[in-house]
Specification:
Elements: E1 3-5, H1 14-24, E2 29-31, E3 50-51, E4 63-71, E5 74-82, E6 86-88, E7 109-114, E8 117-118, E9 125-131, H2 134-147, E10 157-168, E11 182-191, E12 195-201, E13 211-212, E14 224-225, E15 227-231, E16 234-237, E17 241-244, E18 247-249, H3 254-258, E19 271-278, E20 286-287, H4 472-475, E21 483-488, E22 491-496, E23 500-502, E24 507-509, E25 514-526, E26 529-543, E27 548-553, H5 558-563, H6 569-577, E28 580-581, H7 589-592, E29 595-605, E30 610-620, E31 626-636, E32 644-646, E33 650-657, E34 660-673, E35 677-691, E36 705-718, E37 723-733, H8 747-750, E38 759-763, E39 769-773, E40 777-779, E41 784-786, E42 801-806, E43 809-814, E44 818-820, E45 827-829, E46 842-847, E47 850-855, E48 860-861, E49 866-867, H9 879-894, E50 915-917, E51 924-926, H10 960-967, E52 995-997, E53 1004-1006, H11 1040-1047, E54 1075-1077, E55 1084-1086, H12 1120-1127, E56 1155-1157, E57 1164-1166, H13 1200-1207, E58 1235-1237, E59 1244-1246, H14 1280-1287, E60 1315-1317, E61 1324-1326, H15 1360-1367, E62 1395-1397, E63 1404-1406, H16 1440-1448, E64 1475-1477, ...
Parallel strand pairs: 1-2, 25-31, 28-37
Antiparallel strand pairs: 3-9, 4-5, 5-6, 6-7, 7-15, 8-10, 9-10, 10-11, 11-12, 12-19, 13-14, 15-18, 16-17, 19-20, 21-22, 23-24, 25-26, 26-27, 27-37, 29-30, 29-35, 30-31, 32-34, 33-34, 33-36, 34-35, 36-37, 38-39, 40-41, 42-43, 44-45, 46-47, 48-49, 50-51, 52-53, 54-55, 56-57, 58-59, 60-61, 62-63, ...
């Protein structure tokens, strides 16, 4: 018998092959080849598979089955996949127990290829999964129905296990190398509630070895064939006994194993099918019954009528030719339904449906039956029988041809009966269903939620011939630049290249975020008010890696903005397009590409309002952004302003058909408003999405159903910005999948991974995952950077094109003068001459990329204008021609065209052509005669241009309201909205709307036609506005008098009445009463209608008032006196009266009264007409005033006294009186009066003629004054007491008194009075003649004074104890007690009490008679003190070592131990131990018996100390270096360590090491032989040191450290001195300036910076060749740097403030989510390095530390506010900063001098809290509610977290164990715990202040720097991600992330609120 073989290597054309095969049908057997790998069930990670670990004997984790399966007769609910080619229902034993044995096994086994397999070293992969994908279920069902025709099997679940390219185990000792033979095979288990079936698939060339050698073959060359089959394993009988269960073998020897891929029991070689279990009765395995290679199927046609394999999928049908036919649906109801599986499509209908498939032949076209189309075929070549392919979610599969050929009798053989016909085996051909004649779907068989009339399908019938078939050669330009084109039998298809996704026509880089832009238009009726949306902007941003889609629609009018909030479906489209894909699903963009139409209808309930949404995808723009236009029309219910919308998470099912996806759902939403409270509503959404699919590729996929899971839906309308926002988190999965199920907890599916936003998350087994940078990006997956394909030469751009880099890819654009040819990739020349650009008398010559105009012979000119006369003046070039030629000449000079340049088009007369078009972008627009674009005429590419000859509609002029509205600044120059501006509202005609409201404050009011507020109509927020259409009673505005009256403060802020304030009196009409009186003084006066006092009408209290109604004389102008009087401030700006101000008195004519008196002091004096005091006329209070009417003597010049008096400041520049100033008194002749008195203190004294105080004349207040006229005794010299008294400063240089100073009191003889008292503190004491306090006489205020005149007992001299006690300073010079000092206690005899205790610390100890502490007697506080009276053992005298040790162990004056001091170690006899070690530094050395270090014995920490018992070598004399080293003071005389001293390093010979480094600063430098620094060799820490053996050029001078160098030093310190290769460290030039090229560590990720270190946009590069950057120190720019103004965020209650180098950023929160869309720069600070940041919620101010400027600053968070420097001295490295809102204090750490300081918020009152026991202080916080400070110290030797009170008391360690680099610190006010983030341990932990309750919140952070806490979330800045990360306290998971556009380290973070939070710190 002959046979014809169809093999993959056949070179015959498909048609020829098919014809040959069909001709052989009647006389031969057509041999079919094995299946190919592409015919296997899909596998791999993209199919949702898990991967088994590599190895020789690996077993998967348990694979839990959603429903149990029956294997044999037993029920199993879990499976295991093993390396050795088996699947088991129980965990496997070690392989040696089964791998070399035959069947049966002891445990349940499904064995497609049981052998000793080894995948170590990457030799193959093993994949496995359990799935419910409909296409897989249907395919299994079809296979079972073919093999078991009578089976009623509907699979619910399928297990797929695949061994791909797996190798056999080979012994390591064998001399031959590893074999390259690998096997590929697959096992598929399908089951339902009652039955299970198993498929084994062995593809062609899948089996290359057929057995394996036993591991213990002892060099015997044997090979065991693989076992294939099934084993039940041991079963139980008789309760306690076990026996082997049934088993079934498919193979028995090597040949049978080889036959696996050559034959099969399904009629298809390599495909084996078995019935493996049943619920009710099952004895053993049953194989399929179709037969093998030469088996003949039964005669007689049978055609399987395959209904839907699963009822739940039966309703999802295919569309016939994408056409709905509603009219024919009823008559077609009887047609069977397909399950929608891509591999079992309904066959074309035609004619008799009972007819079997007839084979195709040249003369007999096929007419396959519908049923036969369900058959599956496997084969080697594609033989299309119908016109159109289908997409498939599984890899390309074949369709079975019927096992029975049709009963067709060839010519010449008409007598042959069907029984005589040869029986033909199953033939392998491809059967494609026709879409042209398929019956329409029956009613109810599908769920389509949109009317069929709305679906726009292609209904044309396409006849494919070789003439009209579309091929890649002709149409590949329709494919994306990131796709390849493939030809198929019926046409071509585009496929995205690996690394890209889409539908082939549009491809995007996998894993990269996606942006969408477009316009929204239409008319929406809110309630009954139509609102038109006129092309407003829509923008969306989708994080593809986790499915977050953010949509913002701007400029949405207010009424419709609130009403559209429930319309989240507008943004849901983008969520569906780019959803996070769970296994066995794909997002919409892979199906639709960028061109589609979405039609949706929304019906609101209960109002039945309907809204239509049409969204059209118009492709990708030049930046790969998707363009989508949206049209909305219809009605929506009214929502009250200010309402909030909440929508719960939900799922929606999408059904997929060719070219359309549909869905229908009902949603509920809640509306919360102030008016209505909370209400629930709903709407129904019906939608379809139509798109263009490619039907020529049988590999493509049709997904029956998928579900979108919307986990978070957030909607918001921002009234002030008029922005409507939707934020939705989307996942897509097969229907029924629970995204929170255990198999989907992998972070890739949960969306909580930490991959970069430009990276893909690839799930691995369990919780493991891998981050892989998106296509077009490079990095480690957690940090990805765009690859510049253009710069790296990776572009696909061809000749005459230019590469334009895009995020994740690039674009090719043709150079000017070229355009893309037919293929869309090749640039061809544009024939400009075709548009006749030259003069009519010129000819056009086209050239490559350009053209030339030449005048015709006999004409002269430039070609654009030609004239016949040579030399005739050519008309001047027009503006258009000049414009055009300047651009073209620029191109010629550069030698190449400027890509994308617009060249204007001029007509033959040189005028601008009315229609202008851009050659590159395709946009067109109309221009006027000046070439200016006419508004509203621009059209995008692909649309019809405007008719530019049509006249414009006349535009009405703007109204007053529109001018007013448009003049309001609502946006800052940077484009950010300005909060608080009032924008008037105008109606459609431009008139003011009657009701106006302020968007920020919420006040509303009515206005008239001019926009002026109508009095009495203003209403506050939250109240019902006034009805502005209702006529209002005319209300007069407030008068000036009423405003004046209401402005006066009559009550203090505390609610008490204010005395002395003058309140004007107004009449009923609001006018000033003509008579005004002062309620406090009783004075009255008349006023005019403006309230001004009428001159001459003031009367004092008790006198009759002037009749103010009597007509006044014509009013004269104010005089100088009246101006002076009225200009005096008698009331403070707050309206309170001022005491002590001098008010001049004027007479009735306004002239100064001759006598002036001060109402407060009582002094009086005469003045001249100008009000100037006349010398000698001032009299003291109580003295008769001078007669000022007496004529003046000729005026003498002013005396010294008068000058002195006038110089005294009694009034401030603002006119307020100064209290306490001393004013000298002069007599009538201008001489000092002999008695002078201080008006405030009451002291009096006598003065000489120069005004100098006469000694001994001062008397205190209340005592009789000295008679100063009594002649002086001969003046004795001043005594010591008088000199002491006069030297005390009691008055400041400005003349103000100084309070609190002690002034000694002297008697009349100048001796100290025996009793002295302090006037401020009240203490009194007795003194001796020298003024020294007599011991025991001081008593506090309020106690009886000692009688100082009583004779003393004979005074014994002070003892040593008393001298010690009295020398201790316990009171400051101001009289305040000093805390913490130790005061020794003396007994009554002045001797030291035997027991001494420290009053502050509580320590006690015994002392000897000299007050020296007795060894071993000190006890800590709270313990029993020693009995100091108990006699000591006879004490030997202290040795030198013990004295040394005692001195070192001394405490500070405050009683605190001194950290870092070296304490010598003494043995029991008090001698120095030979080996001494420093407990702080770890250095050790040997000493001699005097404790002197022995040269050469010092060893650093961590090294083996020297053997000090070993005798020294003969000692050489010390060198200069050793003397220098030993001379350095590292300890102060008091025993304190000296920080920062440089200790020179000497080599073994005692010479200076050539390279010296400073232990504290880290600087290194070279020295000469004398130890002198060599100029120009110093390098900062972290930079490569200079080679000190090489000569170095000498730098001229030393300069201060630059910003770059400071920043570098700071970062190196933060990195712990050793930055990683990936970490950024600024690169500085020799002169300290920024290097023009900056890079991340040692990577090639580099960019350019300017002279301030700011990144130059567009210069980032990953190339090995660094970017070409200009030097950073360019000539100074002419324009100054922008002023650092504050630009606060708008309408945000909670905002995170973060420091990022030279700026402070603002990141608003929506709830607890980071709102990246509203983030902005709060403040730009050029040249700064902002580190610490804090916020004052009371004053709305931000505070920060500047590491570069070494300052602390603040700024108000108000628009336009400027920074204010608070502290700029004595700061070195200020970092952490905290603000105590309650106490109005700030605290900061300075990490260089290692100290913590505090100050008032204005910078005053600065004090040091701590400057000891700190090594690297970093973060600091203050808890205002408890008054507690917390700070971190990441001393690498002993890191800790400490606390104290805000005044520096009660310092203690909170945490010191289990921490590494505690960078970040915050306070959890809810749990009252301190929390920190550690860059060393990578943990986020919390602990109670007392050290209890410690717990880990998150175990694996990246590199945290700073942190805050808010509403159960921690927000920290991360140096690895360079962003802000959010961590939930409840779930301990990272919930959100924000990465600023500019990539650099973020430092401090703070939280800013509109009001102070409870428990805020």
């Amino acid at each position: 018998m002959q046979s014809c073989s169809l093999t993959p290597s056949s070179t015959m054309e498909r048609g020829v092959m098919l014809a040959v095969c069909l001709l052989c049908w009647s006389c031969s057997v057509c041999v079919v080849t094995a299946i190919k790998r592409t015919d296997m069930f899909s596998y791999g990670t993209l199919s949702g598979d898990l991967i088994l670990a590599e190895g020789d004997d690996e077993t998967s984790r348990v694979l839990s089955l959603p429903k149990p399966l029956f294997f044999y007769g037993s029920l199993f609910s879990q499976l295991y996949v093993a390396t050795n080619g088996i699947i088991s229902a129980q965990d496997l034993p070690m392989e040696k127990q089964y791998v070399d044995d035959g069947f049966p096994t002891d445990f349940p086994v499904v064995a497609p290829f049981l052998a000793d397999i080894d995948t170590s070293g990457g030799r193959g992969q093993i994949y496995y999964r359990v799935t419910e994908t409909p296409s897989v279920l249907n395919r299994v069902a079809q296979e079972v129905h073919r093999g078991f025709p009578d089976a009623k099997f509907t699979p619910t679940h399928v297990v797929v296990a695949t061994w791909e390219n797996v190798a056999a185990y080979e012994e390591q000792t064998r001399t031959t190398g590893p074999s390259d033979k690998v096997n590929t095979f697959q096992a598929v288990i399908g089951y339902d509630e009652t039955d299970s079936y198993v498929l084994f698939l062995y593809p062609e060339d899948g089996l290359n070895y057929f057995g394996t050698r036993p591991k213990e073959s002892y060099n015997v060359e044997i090979e065991l064939p693989a076992r294939v089959g099934f084993s039940r394993g041991e079963v139980t009988y008789l309760i306690f006994s076990r026996t082997e269960g049934p088993h079934y073998s498919v193979t028995s020897d090597e040949q049978s194993v080889k036959n696996l891929y050559q034959v099969g029991n399904t009629g298809i070689p390599g495909v084996w099918l078995f019935h493996t279990g049943n619920r009710y009765s099952f004895d053993n395995i049953v194989p399929a019954s179709i037969g093998g290679l030469l088996d003949t199927p039964p005669t007689g046609g049978h055609s399987l009528s395959l209904d839907s394999t699963t009822p739940e999928y039966g309703e999802f049908e295919e569309y016939p030719d994408n056409t709905f036919d509603s009219e024919n649906q009823e008559e077609e109801e009887d047609y069977p339904h397909t399950g929608g599986d891509p591999e079992f499509q309904p066959a074309p209908a035609g004619g008799d449906h009972s007819e079997s498939l007839q084979p195709a032949s040249p003369d007999a076209p096929s007419s396959p039956s519908e049923d036969s189309g369900h058959q599956l075929s496997y084969g080697s070549e594609d033989v299309p029988l119908t016109s159109e392919p289908r997409y498939s979610s599984e890899p390309a599969g074949r369709q079975y041809a019927p096992p029975n050929p049709p009963e067709r009798v060839p010519e010449g053989d008409a007598q042959r009966t069907p029984k005589q016909q040869p029986q033909v085996p199953l033939e392998v051909v491809d059967v494609y269903p026709s879409h042209r004649n398929e019956p329409p779907l029956s009613p109810g068989g599908h769920v389509v939620s949109v009317d069929e009339d709305d679906v726009d399908f292609d209904t044309g019938v396409i006849q494919y011939t070789t003439e009209n078939k579309e091929t890649c050669a002709r149409f590949q330009q329709q494919c994306s630049q990131n796709a390849f084109c493939s030809d198929y039998a019926t046409g071509f298809c585009c496929h995205c290249r690996p690394g890209f996704y889409g539908n082939g026509r549009h491809c995007l880089p996998e894993g990269a975020p996606q942006r969408v832009s477009g316009k929204v238009s239409g008319t929406v009726t809110v309630g009954s008010t139509p609102v038109e949306l006129n092309n407003i902007d829509l923008h969306a941003y989708i994080v593809v890696g986790d499915g977050r889609a953010y949509t913002a629609i701007s400029q949405v009018p207010e009424p419709v903005g609130w009403a559209l909030m429930p319309l989240a479906p507008i943004g849901e489209l983008f969520g569906w397009l780019f959803a996070l894909e769970l296994p066995n699903s794909q997002a919409g963009f892979k199906i639709t590409g960028a061109e589609f139409t979405r039609r949706a209808e929304v019906i609101f309930y209960p109002g039945n309002q309907r809204l239509s949404i049409i969204q059209t995808g118009r492709g990708l723009d030049d930046h790969n952004h998707l363009t989508v236009d949206t049209v909305v029309s219809g009605n929506v219910p009214f929502l009250p302003p200010g309402a909030e919308i909440t929508m719960e998470p939900f799922k929606e099912t999408y059904q997929y058909y060719p070219s359309v996806a549909t869905s229908s759902s009902v949603r509920e939403f809640s509306v919360v408003s102030a008016e209505q409270g909370s209400e629930s509503f709903s709407f129904q959404l019906k939608q379809n999405i139509t798109y263009r699919d490619c039907r020529h590729d049988n590999r493509a996929a049709v997904l029956e159903t998928l579900q979108i899971i919307m986990e978070r839906v957030f909607v918001m309308y921002v009234k002030e910005e008029r922005i409507l926002r939707y934020a939705i988190t989307n996942k897509i999965s097969p229907v029924g999948v629970d995204p929170t199920g255990p198999e989907l907890v992998n972070p890739c599916y949960a969306g909580n991974h930490d991959c970069d936003t430009t990276a893909q998350c690839i799930p691995l087994e369990g919780q493991a995952f891998q981050c892989q940078c998106a296509t077009g990006y490079r990095g480690d997956g957690r940090n990805c950077y765009d690859i510049d394909e253009c710069a790296e030469g990776l572009s696909s751009c061809r000749a005459h094109s230019q590469c334009v880099n895009l995020p994740g890819g690039h674009r090719c654009q043709c150079q000017s003068g070229y355009e893309f040819g037919f293929d869309g990739r090749t640039c061809v020349d544009i024939d400009e001459c075709s548009s006749s650009p030259c003069h009519v008398s010129a000819r056009c010559i086209n050239g490559l990329g350009s053209f030339l105009c030449q005048c015709q012979p006999g004409f002269y000119g430039d070609g654009f204008y030609c004239s016949q006369t040579e030399g005739q003046t050519v008309r001047p070039r027009s503006q258009c021609e000049q414009h055009r030629d300047s651009l073209q000449s620029g191109m010629e000079q550069s030698g190449r065209p400027s890509p994308g340049a617009f060249i204007p088009q001029c007509d033959s007369d040189g005028r601008y052509q009315p229609l202008q078009c851009h050659g590159s972008t395709g946009h067109c627009w109309c221009v006027d005669s000046r070439g200016q674009e006419r508004a509203g005429t621009r059209t995008p590419p692909g649309t019809a241009p405007k008719d530019c000859d049509r006249p414009d509609e006349p535009v009405r002029p703007k109204t007053h309201c529109e001018h007013h509205r448009d003049s309001v600044q609502t946006t800052s120059p940077e484009g950010y909205p300005i909060v608080g501006a009032y924008v008037p509202q105008c109606d459609a005609n431009g008139q003011y709307t009657l009701l106006q409201c302020h968007g920020s404050s919420g006040h509303c009011w009515c206005v008239d036609g001019n926009g002026q507020e109508r009095a009495g109509t203003r209403t506050p927020p939250g109240t019902t506005p006034t009805d502005c259409s209702k006529p209002v009673e005319p209300e007069r505005p407030k008068t000036y008098c009423e405003h004046h009256r209401d402005r006066v403060q009559t009550t203090s802020p505390d609610g008490y009445p204010v005395i002395g304030a003058y309140v004007p009196q107004c009449d009923a009409n609001g006018q000033y009463r003509s008579l005004q009186c002062h309620g406090s003084t009783g004075q009255c006066w008349c006023v005019d209608e403006r309230g001004q006092e009428r001159v001459g009408t003031r009367t004092p209290p008790g006198t009759p008032s002037v009749d103010c109604d009597r007509p006044g004389e014509p009013e004269r102008p104010k005089t100088h006196c009246e101006h002076h009087r009225d200009g005096v401030q008698t009331t403070s700006p707050e309206g309170y009266p001022l005491v002590g101000a001098y008010v001049p008195q004027c007479d009735a004519d306004g002239q100064y009264t001759p006598l002036q008196c001060h109402s407060s002091t009582g002094h009086c004096w005469c003045v001249d007409s100008r009000g100037q005091e006349k010398a000698g006329t001032r009299t003291s209070p109580g003295a008769p005033p001078t007669d000022c009417h007496k004529p003046d003597e000729p005026e003498r010049p002013k005396t010294h006294c008068e000058h002195h008096r006038e110089r005294a400041q009694t009034t401030s520049p603002e006119g307020y009186p100064i209290v306490g100033a001393y004013v000298p008194q002069c007599d009538a002749d201008g001489q000092y009066t002999s008695l002078q008195c201080h008006g405030s203190t009451g002291h009096c004294w006598c003065v000489d003629g120069r005004g100098q105080e006469r000694a001994g004349t001062r008397t205190p207040p209340g005592t009789p004054s000295v008679d100063c006229n009594k002649p002086d005794e001969p003046v004795r010299p001043k005594t010591y007491c008088e000199q002491h008294r006069d030297s005390v400063q009691t008055t400041s240089p400005e003349g103000y008194p100084i309070e609190g100073v002690f002034v000694p009191q002297c008697d009349s003889n100048g001796q100290y009075t025996s009793q002295q008292c302090h006037s401020s503190t009240g203490h009194c004491w007795c003194v001796d003649v020298r003024g020294q306090e007599r011991s025991g006489t001081r008593n506090p205020p309020g106690t009886p004074s000692v009688d100082c005149d009583k004779p003393d007992e004979p005074v014994r001299p002070k003892t040593y104890c008393e001298q010690h006690r009295d020398s201790v300073q316990t009171t400051s010079p101001e009289g305040y007690p000093i805390e913490g000092v130790f005061v020794p206690q003396c007994d009554s005899n002045g001797q030291y009490t035997s027991q001494q205790c420290h009053g502050s610390t509580g320590h006690c100890w015994c002392v000897d008679s000299r007050g020296q502490e007795r060894a071993e007697t000190r006890t800590p506080p709270g313990t029993q003190p020693r009995d100091c009276d108990r006699p000591d053992e006879p004490e030997r005298p202290k040795t030198h070592c013990e004295h040394h040790r005692h001195r070192a162990q001394a405490t500070s004056q405050e009683g605190y131990p001194i950290v870092g001091v070296y304490v010598p170690q003494c043995d029991a006899d008090g001698q120095y131990l030979q080996l001494q070690c420093h407990s702080s530094t770890g250095h050790c050395w040997c000493v001699d018996r005097r404790g002197q270090e022995r040269t050469g014995t010092r060893t650093p920490p961590g090294t083996q100390p020297k053997d000090c018992n070993r005798p020294d070598e003969p000692e050489r004399p010390k060198t200069h270096c050793e003397h220098h080293r030993d001379r350095v003071q590292t300890t102060s005389p008091e025993g304190y360590p000296i920080v920062g001293a440089h200790l020179p390093q000497c080599d073994a010979e005692g010479q200076y090491l050539p390279r010296q480094c400073h232990g504290s600063t880290g600087d290194c430098w070279c020295v000469d032989g004398r130890g002198q620094e060599r100029a120009g060799t110093r390098t900062p820490p972290g930079t490569p040191s200079v080679d000190c053996d090489r000569p170095v050029p000498v730098a001229p001078t030393q300069r201060p450290e630059s910003v770059c160098e400071r920043w570098r030093t700071s970062l190196i310190e933060h990195y712990g001195g050793k930055p990683d290769a990936q970490q950024y460290v600024p690169q500085c030039e020799q002169d300290g300036q920024f290097s023009p090229v900056q890079c991340y560590g040692e990577t090639t990720y580099c960019w350019c910076v300017d002279q301030d270190g700011r990144e130059v946009p567009g210069t980032r590069s990953h190339d090995v060749v660094k970017p070409a950057c200009l030097p950073s120190v360019a000539p100074p720019t002419v324009r100054p740097l922008p002023r650092p103004d504050v630009t606060p965020p708008t309408n945000t209650d909670i905002t995170l403030l973060y420091a990022q180098g030279q700026k402070i950023g603002a990141l608003p929160l929506n709830g607890t989510r980071l709102d990246a869309t509203r983030s902005k720069t709060l403040l730009t600070l050029h040249g700064s390095i902002v580190v610490g940041i804090a916020y004052d919620c009371k004053e709305n101010q931000v505070y920060w530390t500047d590491l570069s400027a070494r300052t602390i600053n603040r700024a108000s968070m108000a628009t336009g506010a400027e920074p204010e420097i608070l502290i700029n001295t004595n700061l070195v490295s200020p970092e952490g900063l905290a603000v105590d809102v309650k106490r109005r204090l700030m605290f900061w750490v300075d990490s260089n001098p290692d100290m913590i300081e505090s100050a008032n918020l204005d910078g005053s009152g600065r004090r040091t809290l701590f400057d000891t026991d700190l090594v690297n202080p970093r973060a600091i916080i203050v808890v205002s509610s408890t008054g507690t400070l917390y700070w971190t110290d990441w001393n690498r030797e002993a890191p800790k977290i400490e606390s104290s009170s805000v005044d520096g008391q009660n310092r203690r360690v909170v945490v010191s164990e289990g921490i590494g680099l505690p960078n970040a610190l915050t306070y959890d006010s809810s749990s009252r715990q301190v929390c920190w983030a550690d860059a060393g341990t990578k943990r986020l932990e919390c602990v109670s202040p007392d050290g209890s309750g410690r717990r880990v919140v998150h175990p694996s952070l990246n590199y945290p720097f700073s942190m805050v806490y808010y509403r159960n979330h921690f927000y920290y800045t991360d140096w690895r991600r360079d962003g802000v990360i959010a961590v939930s306290k409840d779930s301990s998971q990272i919930t959100d992330e924000y990465l600023p556009d500019q990539r650099s380290h973020l430092y401090g973070i703070a939280i800013a609120t509109t009001h102070c939070l409870s428990g805020s710190h």
